[in-house]
Amino acid sequence: MPVDIALLDADWHESHEELGQHLQWLRAPERVDALYRASVRIYPYHYDGGIAIRRRCTWALADIGDQAAFDALPRLCGSTDRQVALFAFKRLRGWLRERVFAATGLRRAGMRRANPQHPNQTRENKKAQSRD
Predict the structure, then answer these.
(1) Contact 7/29 with Cβ under 8 angstroms?
(2) Is the separation of the CB atoms in 54 and 87 below 8 Å?
(3) Are the beta carbons of 67 and 29 closer than 8 angstroms?
(4) In this predicted model, what pLDDT tens digit does every residue of 5-45 receive, in sequence order?
(5) How far apart are CA 32 and CA 107, in angstroms?
(6) What is the dihedral of CA 40, 41, 42, 46, to 10 degrees?
(7) How many Å from the N-terminal Cα to the C-terminal Cα in the chain?
C-alpha cells in the first residue's frame, strides 16, 4: 500500500487536508478509492468534522479526470452528508460542462481571451480607469 493512501486512512495524525491537497496535485488514478473513502469520512479532530478535507478530496477526484474518478462522483452525490453530496454535484456539473465546451469548441458566455490589442486590456487604459 502506498504511503499516501496509508496516511490518508490513518487516525493518528491531523494532516489529512494536506494529504488531500497532495493527492489533488498528483492526479493519480490509483488513488481514487482512497479519495472516495476520505470524502465520506468524519474527522473528529477538525472543528467542523472535516468539511474542508472532504471538499478537497472531492475536488481531487474531479481533477484526476479518468473514468473511475468520474464514477465516484455520482456515488458521492448520493451521500447522506448533504455537503459532500453538493460538493460532488458541483464538481460533476463542472466536469460535464467542461466536456461539452471542449467537444463543441464553444466558450462560456462572458469569457474572452486576453487580447493586448483590445482597448479595455491595454495597460494605458487600465491605468486611466484606475485614476478615474
Answers:
(1) no
(2) yes
(3) no
(4) 888 888 888 888 888 888 889 999 999 999 999 999 888 88
(5) 30
(6) -100
(7) 60
* C-alpha 128, offset from chain centre: 37
Residue 47 in 3-state DSSP? coil
Do 76 and 39 form a contact (C-beta atoms < 8 A)?
yes
Domain ranges of the chain: 3-109
Contact predicate 88/69, CB 8 Å: no
pTM over cut 0.90 = no
Q: What are phi and psi of 54, to 5 degrees?
A: -65, -35
Residue with cell 466558450: 107
Residue 106 DSSP symbol: -
Residue 43: which of 74, 68, 9 has the closest Cα? 9
Burial of 102 (0-12, 13-18, 19+ CB in 10 A): exposed
Q: Do residues 8 and 38 lie in contact, with contact meaning Cβ atoms separated by under 8 Å?
A: yes
Distance CA 65, CA 90 (A): 15
